[in-house]
Amino acid sequence: MAASMDDFEPRVVLPGDSLMGHIPGELHGKMTLGPGLRQDETKIFSTKAGILKRKNPHTFWIDCHQKRYVPAKGDKVLGVVTQKAGDVFRVDIGGQSQAILSYLAFEGATKRNRPNVQVGDVVYAKLLVANRDMEPELVCIDSSGRSQGLGVVGSDGFMFRCTLGLVRRLLLKDCPMLKFLGEKISYEIAIGMNGRIWVRAKSIHTTIAVVTALTNCEFMSEDDMKKMLRKLVAAGFHDSRPKPN
Amino acid sequence: MTALSNLEEDFILKAIEESKRLDGRQPYDYRRTKIEFGVERGCCMVHMGDTRILAQVSCEVVEPKENRPNEGQLFVNLELSPMASTTFEAGRLSDYGIELNRLLERTVKDSRAVDVESLCIVAGEKVWKIRLDVHVLNHDGNILDSACIAALAALSHFRRPDVTVIGESVTIHSPQDRDPVPLNVHHIPVCVTFAFYHKGKRLLVDPTEKEEKVMEGTMVVGMNVHRELCTMQVTGSMLILKEQIIRCCQIGVVKVSELTELIKQALEKDKTARAEGKKFGFAESHPKKSITSKVIPEQTLDTSDVEDEVSRIMETAELPEQVSSKLEIKKPGLGQIGDGLTNSWLDDGDADEAEEEENGNSKEEDEMEGAIGSEDEDEEEEEEEEEKKMIVTKPKAKDKRKGKSKAYVSDSEEEETFTLDNADLDVIQGTKSQKLSEELDLTAALKKPSDKTKSRGNTRAKGGKKKWKKEQNIKDRP
Amino acid sequence: MTSNPENNSSVEIRPIGSLQSCISKPDGSAVFTQGDTSVMAAVYGPGDVKPNKALMDKATVTVTYKPKIGISGVREKALERMIRNTCETVLLTTLFPRSSVDIIVQEIQDAGALLACSINAACLAMINAGIPMKCTVAASCCMMGKDEELIMDPTKEQTKDAECVLTSAIDSSAHSLIASSMQGSCSVEQYHKLMSVCQKACDKVFEFYREAMERTLSKP
């Protein structure tokens, strides 16, 4: 008797592993293959090492630890402007080539009214075009012309790099870490899918604390996170502490 | 590669102003430093935070320099491996690399940390040359300090073969005969790097890579535990007061004694591990409990079915054809080895049955180098062979092509084949006596390419002749 | 590590160890140890490539092999080429045109079977970096000594007396040969024997890869 699909357990796969061997039960109809899975004629195999996960009914993907970002359409990323060239900015998003951001892709920007963006600024933008054959393109507005939180990130705060796994974890619905932090410390955060996170808190002290907490929490369980937060509060990293001079 | 954004720069500078660092250290604190030794003598790996350095000492016997016949030689080489950062190129040493190299050399060599006179075997004839290779494996700031520690630890760890000189004869004992002898290390100079910010008003010890990117200048102080100054260098665009220099040296004294203590402890630990017969080396120092490390012990392979499998393979597989390598001289300047492929142009259906033996082919290509006068004929023969090759390899498009120009193996079945029959063969072979007018017909035929064949991947570097489908046109000729 | 010539039914391979993500800068890194031989590999990719080296339809794979002592010479170039051909075969290079995958291999300790260890380290580093691959690759080294004595995973001293030393790299999906390097001479039958023993050893290495990844990915 073949096991049913409900028996599927997330398991570790290596590159080259055929999906058929890992899925119990029969497969009917359409299957959605997420990142890390590839079809080769009749065979479906994994291209990365990670944990094979499934979402009902027939969506599979591989969760893997990766540092390098590969641009994907629709991702919101944090980029650093490296060059002003003609009508576009060249922005480094950590991928294989630099992305293009047009002058006009900002809210309220016209040919005469140029946005105030300097080389070295950090922008929070959305990927409009991202495939392997073309240079990625960014925009700071949505389809209706409004910025929706995108644009140049202020001159305060700190941006740090992390793994893509941490970013995905933080962007889950009801991420416990962000909530715990928010209970004790007030802070602003922008999370880029390219493994970059921008944080701003009231003082340098607190910002460094938030950055450290986020970097360390990737593999922690909820209890561990609570313990770490308590230690931070005990060390004085919360809002009621007077600003050190 | 990725430049620091203005945001990060401002933040780090503001934090330094408040005497705060990103990793929570105090301004004068070193990061966690770990020193490990390998199984080989003279092999040392240093971890300073995330910065990783590997050092290896080796020795050989050479002739001494003419102006110093009694001294051995010490050669220091620091390599910025492309592993450490995307900004480091393999081979070429950048300005930064040269600066580090020179500083390391000054600290280790010019301070006479190693006694070179004791490296002399026979004055004026044979001396030991000690070679120190330092590889930077990961760049997270402060390469110089860690390279210095690695160098001195490796030099103290190293053992050279023992030598006895009796009259004229020199015997170099192998490690099995006599225990190798340590180098004579007088003192351990250690470098301390200071980074300056805010017009020289703030300084940090042991900067990380991000802190190095925003610093204004740096000062290196090389010292040993006896408070002797070995090296000092100030680089960068800032002006510092002499009080700063004195303060740095005082901080340096404290730091140097801490680091020297670390080196000595590591050497002791390695010595006891070797003496007691316990396991030593890098493998031992891997954090075993970490989930990123995995070790499996020695295991045996079951090879009982190997014999059976081998005999099965020998029976079923075809042995490669024996190739005759006898040279036939056809005419002056034209030699042939092997028979080449069988002529498959005579029958249309023979393309699939063509043999795979290409040895004849490749040898005939060699004859091209020798041919002088009969170039046309040879070229045509070459074309023939190449065309034969094309016919042969097409049905098995996935085989690796041995063309002079390496092409990407294409699985496409789009390439068309064509065949020339016996009449065409005579025509081509008889061309050397043809008159120009007849040749013109051929070119006319070529101008009407009704079906072109694109020769992908098989264009020869010499000329790149394209093959046109001449079948119909040539048949029309009288 | 030797086999008894009379009872030629099993040979031993040295303890295998690995350490992943050992250095912070590269996208993927790993240290692979076989007995006392230890090699560290690091991978940067897919990343920027110089326009003169860019390939229009796939990624440019470059390998740099750094020996511990001395400067890179011809021997290192030969090793680089072997490792490069092996890695290029298993990587899905067509997914990243006009980009580069840089693999840097550093010798940490050489106690025999260096090429095999380097290929294994490179493969682990690529897995660690998460670059899409068709399958994994494992390499092993085997030698034939005097009296047709088969020695698996030999040390440096053992290879000095070898008639023939064979290193071969096998892929995980079809178990077919990707790369092979042989020194010395042997008969066709002996070659097949060495090859099948190498294949068995490579299977052990594949098992090791799986166990190592399961351990690394054990925390959610």
TrEMBL record, chain A:
Presence of keyword Chloroplast: no
One biological process term in Gene Ontology: U4 snRNA 3'-end processing
Gene3D superfamilies for the chain: 2.40.50.100, K Homology domain, type 1, Nucleic acid-binding proteins
Cell compartments where the protein resides: Cytoplasm; Nucleus, Nucleolus
Domain Exosome complex exonuclease Rrp40 N-terminal: 32-68
Family: Belongs to the RRP40 family.
Descriptive protein name: Exosome complex component RRP40
Species this chain originates from: Strongylocentrotus purpuratus (Purple sea urchin)
TrEMBL record, chain B:
Keyword Cytoplasm in annotation: yes
Region (Disordered): 332-478
GO biological processes: exonucleolytic trimming to generate mature 3'-end of 5.8S rRNA from tricistronic rRNA transcript (SSU-rRNA, 5.8S rRNA, LSU-rRNA); nuclear mRNA surveillance; nuclear polyadenylation-dependent rRNA catabolic process; rRNA catabolic process; TRAMP-dependent tRNA surveillance pathway; U1 snRNA 3'-end processing; U4 snRNA 3'-end processing; U5 snRNA 3'-end processing
Biased composition (Basic residues): 395-405, 455-469
One Gene Ontology molecular-function label: mRNA 3'-UTR AU-rich region binding
Any one Pfam family match given in the protein's UniProt record, by short name: RNase_PH
Keyword annotations from UniProtKB, A to Z: Cytoplasm, Exosome, Nucleus, RNA-binding, rRNA processing
Main location (coarse class): cytoplasm
Domain Exoribonuclease phosphorolytic residues, every copy: 30-161, 187-252
Cellular location(s): Cytoplasm; Nucleus, Nucleolus
Record SUPFAM superfamilies: Ribonuclease PH domain 2-like, Ribosomal protein S5 domain 2-like
UniProt feature coiled coil, ranges: none
Compositional bias annotation for Acidic residues: 347-386
UniProt xrefs under InterPro entries: ExoRNase_PH_dom1 (IPR001247), ExoRNase_PH_dom2 (IPR015847), ExoRNase_PH_dom2_sf (IPR036345), Exosome_comp_Rrp42_subfam (IPR050590), PNPase/RNase_PH_dom_sf (IPR027408), Ribosomal_Su5_D2-typ_SF (IPR020568), Rrp45 (IPR033100)
GO cellular component: cytoplasmic exosome (RNase complex); nuclear exosome (RNase complex); nucleolus
Assigned protein family: Belongs to the RNase PH family.
Record's protein name: Exosome complex component RRP45
Automatic annotation (TrEMBL), chain C:
Molecular function, one GO term: DNA binding
Database matches in InterPro entries: ExoRNase_PH_dom1 (IPR001247), ExoRNase_PH_dom2_sf (IPR036345), PNPase/RNase_PH_dom_sf (IPR027408), Ribosomal_Su5_D2-typ_SF (IPR020568), RNase_PH (IPR050080)
GO biological process, one term: rRNA catabolic process
Annotated GO CC locations: cytoplasmic exosome (RNase complex); nuclear exosome (RNase complex); nucleolus
Database matches in Pfam families: RNase_PH
Family: Belongs to the RNase PH family.
Name listed for the protein in its UniProt record: Exosome complex component RRP46
Species the sequence originates in: Strongylocentrotus purpuratus
